Amino acid sequence: MTASSTGEHYLPSASLPAAADVGGAHSGGPASAFGMHGALDVGGVPFHRLSVVVPMYNEIENAAPLIDEVQAALVDYPFPWELLVVDDGSRDGTGQALEDHGATLGPHIRVIRLWRNFRQTAAMQAGIDASRGDVIVTMDGDLQNDPRDIPKLVARLLTGDLDFVAGWRKNRQDGFWLRKFPSKIANALIRKSTGLKFNDLGCSLKAFRGSVLREVRLYGEMHRFIPAWLATVTSPQRMDEVPVNHRARVAGTSKYGLSRTFRVITDLLAMHFFLNYGTRPGHFFGGIGLFTGGLGGLILAWLAVLKFIFGQAIGGRPLLILGFFMVIAGLQLLLAGVLAELLIRIYYDGRHAQPYHHGQGTAPSDDAAWHSSRP
User: Which of 198, 217, 275, 319 has the highest CB neighbour count under 10 A?
Assistant: First the structure.
C-alpha cells in the first residue's frame, strides 16, 4: 500500500488481526496497552502510536472546531493516537476553550498552556517534548490544514520506511501578496541555502518518525527549517513530500505577512552557521581571525620595511592604525573561537535548556489516555 499523490484522503482499514497473529516475540511492546501483542499491521501500515501536535495563539474561534475535526478524522484510526494542543500564551481565552472542549472528549485530548507567548517554534517544541507517539504529526491551528490528510502522511512515512514526510499545499487557498508571495520568496531562499528540493517547506502539516525528530531541538524561529535540521541526523533520501488539501481561513486572523520574509533571511544566516559550525565554532571564528590578523600583520610588516629599510616616515599613515587594529581584532576572534569551543563542550556535556516554560501539569503514564477504536 502506498499513499496517493493526488490529494485524496486515505484511511487504513480498521479490521483487527486474527487471534493467531497476536502474540509473538514482540510481546510486551506498545500493543500490550490494548491487550494485544506483536507487530499489529493494518493494511500494510506497521503498528504505531500517533501524536498530533498543534500550536495555537489567539485562535479562540478555531479552538473547538479544531478538536472536533481531528477527532472526526481519527475516530476510526486503527492505531492509538493522542492530540496535543499547545496554547502559546493566548490572551483571548483560547487555552480555556481548549481545555473545556477537550475534557468532553477524553484524556487523549491534551492541552499544554505556556505562561506567555513564546512564538510558534517554542510552542511546537513544547508539544514535541510532551508527545509520546512513535510518529509525530504537526499542523497549524487555523484549520487551513485538513486533519483528514494525517493518515495519508503517516501511511507514506511508515510504508516507505521514511523519517519525514512534508505536506505540499499544491492548491493553496491564500491571498497572493500577503501569503503566497512571501512564501515563494522564503521557499526559494531556503531551497538555495539548504539544497533541499521541497516545493513547500512552509506547510506546517508534516509527519515525522518520533525517534528522529527528538534528536533535534528547535529554537528561535527555526520551525521553518525542520527538514534542514533533520538532514543533520538522517539522510535526505529518507524524506518525501505529499500533496495535501489546503483550505481558506474561515475564522480568526492571520499572524503572518511580508515581515516574515525578512525574519526568514535572518534565520537562514543563523541556520547556516549552526548547520556548518554548530559543533566546531572555533573553525568559524578562528578562520576569520586568522585572515584578519594575517592581513593586519602583512600591513605592519610592509610598513616596517618602509620604516627600517627605506627610511620613510610611517607615523601619520592610516595603514599603521588599520594594521594595528586588524591584528588586535584577529587575536580577539581567535580567543572568541577558543571560548566558543569551551562553551559548546559544556553545552553538549550538560543538560539542554528548554526554550519555553509552562504551568505544572500531570502527564499521563505511557500506556494511558490514548484513543483507540480497538476493544
Answer: 198
